[in-house]
Write a structure and sequence with these properties.
This protein is mainly alpha-helical. The protein folds into 4 domains: 195 residues, Up-down Bundle (Growth Hormone, Chain: A), CATH 1.20.1250.20; 57 residues; 196 residues, MFS general substrate transporter like domains (Growth Hormone, Chain: A); 60 residues, no CATH class. It has 21 helices and no strands. Helix 8 crosses helix 18, helix 9 packs antiparallel against helix 15 and helix 15 runs parallel beside helix 17. The longest helix is centred in the last third of the chain and has 39 residues. It is globular and about 85 Å long.
């Protein structure tokens, strides 16, 4: 990085396009009904606009380090922002669902590389003793995007049309390209290098990551392995992964240098990151479902419950960025893991009578926990990596983070469905004429309905219907409790891994 360029200007230059890319991962969700209606597509077709973007993102992220070396990082960064800007324009001009999905794939391929690039540039631009500050900037960006995305997408769609959620990227993309041309400069080890292209690694990576992302995104809608499509995708993904590992370990210039995982702290950091993001996405996807299906919350109210957790994380991250330079990062991560686990444990105690504050408090605790975990974990995991290998390491780290989120959503929603069926079958056992509580409740409900004007026969059937609906809601509530409890236990089990990580203290120049 050029010595005469202010590090804060560099940080702003790379975080603007990165933030827009992260916002675009969630901005389409709230506009899906409008897109579907405009392009005359079914729900299943419309969801490909989201799935295709995630799959393309997941494929390109681990390749980023290699592509940066092959083309030169600055050149590749500018190309990625330019392609993202162009594909955003094309998404806005889409004339059919097929064209939108194709342009979303281009957008995902262009945008996926920006997260690892921005992380590696930040770590190189800021001196080692300020890596906590650098990762706080990155962390605020990746946490701010999912909070702003749905709100911004909804407002733009309601005010103008869904096409403007893509058009708004164009001026920001142009500004980002100009700033990158002026302020980003490659260090000598990130200049364009002549390398033999690892074709086999390229193909195998695209196949195993792409298939895995498709399995996680589509599996729950087709009941997983009862679908022949998912079975074949799983076989293809597994074979491709095994071959990919073999090829990359022997390639002269591998697409992904897996030898980085020999670093013990980096490997542990990846495992911890996977399960932390698993918790975050798993619980975030369940909470709105619980609020809207069982508690009668509107979409807006459910969003209000989620928002303070994101705000708490945004406030906590800069604090963690300061603390990580003063105390052992392992202590901060450990406290964050405890907070994260405790917040999910509180969620496992929810019931259908929970008030707003009871639901809000665990979300705030979760936000604080995430804010305390992310920055020290980034810093601790990557502090052992040499600058020359930083691009490759951040690519692996961001791939693991993405996969953790995808697994979290897929596993949480699947367990929710299976446990709801289990609890329903157990509770139905008590709906017999020999259960006095059931007999008394059905009689009381029938009397109330009869009092409201129903005929006795209809009132009896209606009473049974009310009881059965209550049973279904209780079974659903118990399944939510189960999933939150499982996630809480998984989180607290990360503590031994945190303690096993190695900490290198970097001294500030002015501390001498």
């Amino acid at each position: 990085m050029a010595a005469n360029v202010n590090k804060w200007i560099v940080a702003l230059t790379i975080m603007i396009p990165t933030l827009i890319v992260i916002i675009d991962t969630s901005v389409v969700n709230v506009s899906l009904d409008h897109i579907r209606g405009s392009l005359s597509a079914g729900i299943d077709e419309a969801t490909w606009a989201i799935t295709s973007y995630f799959a393309a993102n997941a494929i390109i992220i681990p390749m980023t380090g290699w592509l940066s070396r092959f083309f030169g990082r600055k050149r590749f960064l500018i190309f990625s922002v330019a392609l993202f800007t162009l594909s955003s324009l094309l998404c806005g001009l889409a004339w059919s669902m097929q064209s939108l999905v194709f342009f979303r794939i281009l957008q995902g391929l262009a945008g996926g590389s920006l997260q690892p690039i921005s992380q590696s540039i930040l770590l190189e631009t800021f001196p080692p003793h300020q890596h906590g500050t650098a990762m706080a900037i990155f962390g605020v960006g990746i946490m701010f995007g999912p909070i702003v995305g749905p709100v911004l997408g909804g407002w733009i769609t309601d005010t103008w049309t869904w096409r403007w959620i893509f058009y708004i990227n164009i001026p920001i993309g142009i500004i980002s390209i100009l700033m990158a041309l002026l302020f980003i400069h490659d260090p000598h080890y990130m200049k364009r290098a002549k390398m033999r292209i690892d074709y086999w690694g390229l193909v195998l990576l695209a196949v195993w990551v792409g298939c895995l992302q498709m399995i996680l995104d589509r599996g729950r809608t087709v009941d997983w392995f009862s679908s022949e499509f998912i079975v074949w995708l799983s076989i293809l993904s597994a074979i491709s992964l095994i071959l990919f590992i073999i090829v990359e370990l022997f390639a002269e210039h591998p697409i992904v240098n897996l030898r980085a995982l020999k670093n013990f702290s980096f490997s542990l950091g990846n495992v911890i990151m996977f399960f932390v993001v698993f918790n975050l996405y798993g619980s975030i996807v369940l909470l709105p479902i619980y609020l809207q299906t069982l508690m009668g919350y509107t979409a807006t109210l459910a969003g209000i419950v989620l928002a303070p957790g994101g705000i708490a994380a945004l406030i906590t991250m800069p604090i963690a960025g300061v603390l990580v330079n003063r105390i052992n990062p392992k202590a901060i991560i450990a406290f964050g893991v405890v907070m994260l686990s405790y917040s999910t444990l509180l969620m496992s105690m929810f019931n259908r009578m929970a008030d707003f504050n009871t639901i809000l408090l665990p979300r705030i605790f979760m936000g604080i926990g995430m804010g305390l975990i992310m920055i020290p974990l980034f810093t601790l995991s990557l502090s052992h990596i040499r600058k020359e290998e930083m691009g490759n390491a951040t690519s692996i780290f961001n791939l693991v983070r993405n996969l953790g989120g995808s697994f979290g959503v897929a596993v949480a929603t699947t367990i929710l469905t299976r446990r709801a069926q289990f609890h329903q079958s157990r509770l139905v056992d008590h709906l017999t004429p020999f259960d006095m509580n059931y007999v008394w409740s059905s009689q009381q409900t029938a009397q109330v309905l009869q009092y409201k004007g129903l005929e006795p026969a209809l009132a009896h059937k209606g009473g049974l219907g009310v009881i059965y609906e209550t049973l279904l809601n209780e079974a659903y509530m118990m399944s939510f409790n189960d999933v939150f409890y499982i996630i809480a236990v998984m989180s607290i089990l990360l503590l031994p891994l945190v303690l096993c990580m190695k900490h290198i203290r970097h001294k500030s120049p002015d501390s001498h």
